[in-house]
Amino acid sequence: MQLSRTDQEMLDGAHGAAAADAVRLVLDFARAVGASRLIDCVCAHVDGCLYHGQASLDFVERFVSLGGRVKVPTTLNVGSVDLIHPDLFIGDPALGSAGKRLMEAHVELGCTPSFTCAPYQTLFRPRLGDQVAWAESNAIVFANSVIGARTNRYGDFIDLACALTGRVPDYGLHRNENRRAGAILELVGFEDADADQAGGIAVAAGLSLGRSCGETIAAITGLPACTSEDDLKALGAAAASSGSVAMFHAVGLTPEAPDLATATGGKDVPVATRLGPAEVSAILAGLSTVPDGSALTAVALGTPHFSLAEFDRLMPFLDAAPFAVPIYVNTGRHAWERLVADGRAARLEAAGVTVVVDTCTYVTAILRELSGAVMTNSGKWAYYAPGNLGVDVAFGTLADTMVSAKAGRVVRA
Amino acid sequence: MSARALVHGHASGGMLRLDEPLSFWGGFDSATGKVIDRFHPQHGACLTGLIVAMERGRGSSSGASVLAEAIRRGTAPAALLLLDADAIIATGALVAQMLYRIDCPVIAVGDRGDWQRLSTLLRLEIDAGPDALRITPSQ
Lengths: 413, 139
Fold this sequence. Notes:
The complex is a heterodimer.
Chain A: H1 5-11, H2 17-33, E1 38-40, E2 43-46, H3 54-65, E3 74-76, H4 86-89, H5 93-108, E4 132-134, H6 137-147, H7 158-165, E5 167-169, E6 183-187, H8 195-213, E7 218-221, H9 229-242, E8 248-250, H10 260-264, E9 271-275, H11 277-287, E10 296-306, H12 308-314, E11 327-331, H13 333-341, H14 344-350, E12 353-357, E13 373-376, H15 379-389, E14 393-395, H16 398-407
Parallel strand pairs in A: 2-3, 2-4, 6-7, 6-9, 7-8, 10-11, 10-13, 11-12, 13-14
Antiparallel strand pairs in A: 1-5
Helix pairs in contact in A: 1-2, 2-7, 3-5, 6-9, 8-9, 8-11, 9-15
Chain B: E1 4-7, E2 9-17, H1 24-27, E3 28-29, E4 34-35, E5 51-54, H2 63-73, E6 79-82, H3 87-100, E7 106-108, H4 112-119, E8 123-128, E9 133-137
Parallel strand pairs in B: 2-5, 5-6, 6-7
Antiparallel strand pairs in B: 1-7, 2-8, 3-4, 8-9
Helix pairs in contact in B: 2-3
């Protein structure tokens, strides 16, 4: 292992006891993944605010007690008590307060209290080519694919250790040669799709990508020209739900894929999957656990967290208020502040829309009524919520969900 | 042998070889030490105090937290004998060592033949230090 002078100083304790512990952990991790040196990162996104047990809190408290401070700007992912094991934690106030303390302790280390899974929608968005230490599966895919920043799939403990040292192991997606596509996902017949359809096509492409490519980076061709950044966000989130996807290229849309040859590095790579309208419809139909026409109990939007642009698309649908079922939208507090300031928060509330901040409806007990199906435009929500919340789900585009909210049952726009 | 220690420490115990990779997150209960993944061939098996052989890790990085928590609670395996290196498992054991000074050595054997031979033994003793790694059959 080659150590920089700063690495050695940190190891020797010259940057404090917290940095010494953190750099030791980063170096041990680097050895485990076969890296031979560390490199600087410009920012970190830490997914440590969900409580998995006392060890989660002990880890962070140790750095707090040692006077630790993050060395690079560090955003925090959603908090609340527990993500994927709600059964373990519901109704236990002691564990609820441990979860809250976990969020506060991270802030004491100098992390920004962003509590969002979409840190790329905040002021802390990295730039093309930046080396970053990001955790949370959708954020990782977005950083690599849509921004062209460079991160591996960091996660528990190591994300914070990287933040406390400003260093990451030099391996995997930090390196040029590992960022090329090794497979192609070909979409055929979507040239004329409209903006609403593009959202569904992106989710289907993402789910297919996760299933067929896993860790192999794919170049996606044939996405509609109107595919937005929010659609790519949905694509990445779906892909990281159905498989271990850390990066994709959308040819003509993402920065490292101006054309197919650039995405593949000029190599001839196989077409892993070909999707036409029939396949996309079948994939999306497979997300719903109830048939069209079924009664709804709620609509859930904003997984990953809704952007301001998505709120722009949502607002015209509010003219149809009142709705037959409550509508929940998850977003970050940075977006919420804007909505309050520009008056949209009041309009949303008047229309029966609950804006959920700092957490997400698929990981925690927020939906008050789970007796009927919940409709969502999120592939990630649809993928996880039936398991997490024990709820039936119907998938649709944003327009589908809003006409269904009006009707109180699953209908298509 | 090509084996290397991802996490140092000393351990001895009976051997349990898992037929499929296990995701500690969602697949293992840190309260009981048992495999809770319904689809895992060793569903229900208790891993506490055993040297657990598995080819590789699997699943979410939250597995590191679950393993660290199990080590804290004393429900974890005594050691993990992997075929391929796994950073998530290593991180969980490293953090537990840092926080609680409890060893749960993690070994990446590297060679399939060696790993298969070791994983068929009944008991093992693992002594993984910074300079030397010793894996010996024990009584």
